[in-house]
Amino acid sequence: MADVHRRGGRHPARHALRRAHRDRALPGRAPPGRRRGPLRAADRLRPAAGRVRLAGQRAQQPVLLAGARSEPPLALSLVGRRGDPDRRLQRGRAGRPLARRLARRGDGALSVLVGAVGLTFLVLTLLSLPIVFALGIAGFAGLVVGNFSLQKLPSSLVAGSQSWVLLAIPTFVFAGSLMERCGMSYALVDLARALVGSVRGGLGISVVLAEYFFSGISGSTIADVSAIGAMLTPPMLRAGYAREHAASLVASATAMGILVPPAIFMIVLGQVTDTSVVAIFLGGFIPAAVTAACLTVVILVQAHRLHWPKDRRPTLAEFGATVRASLVPMVVPILIVLGFFFGVFTATEAGALVAFYAVGAALLYYRNVTLREMLRLVHESALLTAAVVFLLAVASVYQFLMGMLGVPAMLGELLQPLETTPWLFLFAVSLIVVLFGMVLEGLPAAVVLVPVVFPVARKIGIHPIHFNIVLTAAVGIGLFLPPIGVGLLMALRFAEVSVGRHFRA
Which of the residues 4, 36, 149, 504 has an alpha carbon 20 to 30 A from that of 413? Predict the structure, then answer.
């Protein structure tokens, strides 16, 4: 434009006066006529250079579709043309999340796609398709229908199942199964009955105490229900406890036991949220102890109200024999607590150490397990571990899709009013997790819901350990929530009582 003015375009006289004033204000400069040639060349190059620089800046502005990850899985180049209908992308708004811009434009395509994925998953689940296949099919269908790039999908599948911490699952499962087969769980139950059985309602309190001990070596909630329900339900029924009350005691104690390390759910949760599993383990001891104390108070009140019987007080010789028999299994929880507290080993190393200790105790002390039975336990532990790892790998497809759609960012904007009240956010998430845990069990609930809500919790300022412990407790409640909680159904089976009768009681 300056070149046009100098050639006598619009307002040549005015620009001539301006040049004269400029030359008078800066004495010592050469006459403008001698600089006119170089100025014309620079003026010709300046607009072109500006256009090239602007295009380069626009080409490097990505639209991040996965706000929860450090590496964006998808970026759209925003080099606009003059004829583009949406000129707002060329006005410095390219850095905004895609979901927010589409929402402001009134485009509900993303919401429709998210709803379609959720509906597909729900329909497949109602058709009794296994959760892992329903989750994978719904996630892959969303990626295909949404026309997203699938280049990073194979690496996400592999990364979802590759973690050192997952090696702790087969070792803890094998150790817990072997200890139960050896009879260590019976020794812990006898110790609990010897400690508190002589008070009114002591048999019910022994259920809570035995679960606190046994969950520290089993690592599996379902194994806890099977062991505690099989060992303590018949004595409670013989002592005069109602079947509904016996089932409720086993269910409530096992729901508390999910907070006692080592729990498989805690290991998976640490993998999904990228949090230290050892820190989650250490964070679960005190909440579990507080919950056990509250359950004990409730049992004492109910025992005096319903006149529950007392257990026989053991003699001094019987008490000593019970304590000696429980020393071997009690080494495991003490070893885990001290090792984690002083940082001696990680969760994976602790699992290997506990498994080695269980094998040594079975072969050298108890001597009631054959090699064939031990190999069968190894096979069962491998099958359970394969199911968990397969679930995590398939869930990475769902997690990949949620990141592509920007669901964490959309949820963060939706829950933005709760940033000033984190407790309300935790309460809402816990309520959802309880319902998920009742319908989908613990692990599917974790891999479906946690990748969506955890980035929001971290943005609000909730500590990851606090968040994981609250979610673990919520899943424990959901597993035993009537009428269709999986753990509750198992407890009712041992007490031989129907769901309707228990619900009415």
Answer: 149
